[in-house]
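Morning!

As promised:
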Amino acid sequence: MAKKILLVCLGNICRSPAAEGVLRAKARERGLELVIDSAGTGAWHVGDPPDARMLKTAGGRGYDLSYIRARKVSMPDFYEFDYLLAMDLSNHTDLLELAPPNRECDIRLFLDFADGETRETPDPYYGGDAGFENVLDLIEQGAEGFLDHLEDESA
Ligand code: 4NP
């Protein structure tokens, strides 16, 4: 059965939609069949497309995020997904607090699967364009690291 992965940030308009698009593209490159989705811990942007700055930056690297609409993390997510991957420590803490005690999903920091020194994907919302490029660099590393982990696990 295809593993199910939920990428989680705060607004679901910058980091986690980008992580959804990047992970989808990199899984396809490796021929891995995964179910991939994203959500936010906050509800401010529910129903919105990704932030225009992220659409542009990701589009420049060949990732099309235009189909994504923001949604909030919900209780069924903790049962339906195998992995909930948080973009920063605050998202991680929020997920652990929301998680029902009988959940079976793994709740992890996305960048813990990458080799880099950074554990958190910083929120680019209030910053400039460089922040969006940096987020995509980190997400590309996180996606490769996470897919390596899945491949090792199933080897
Ligand atoms: P994200 O970025 O969590 O990467 O989607 C944010 C988007 C919106 C807000 C915060 C972070 N906001 O406060 O509206």
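The longest strand covers residues 3-9.

Hope this helps with the figure draft.
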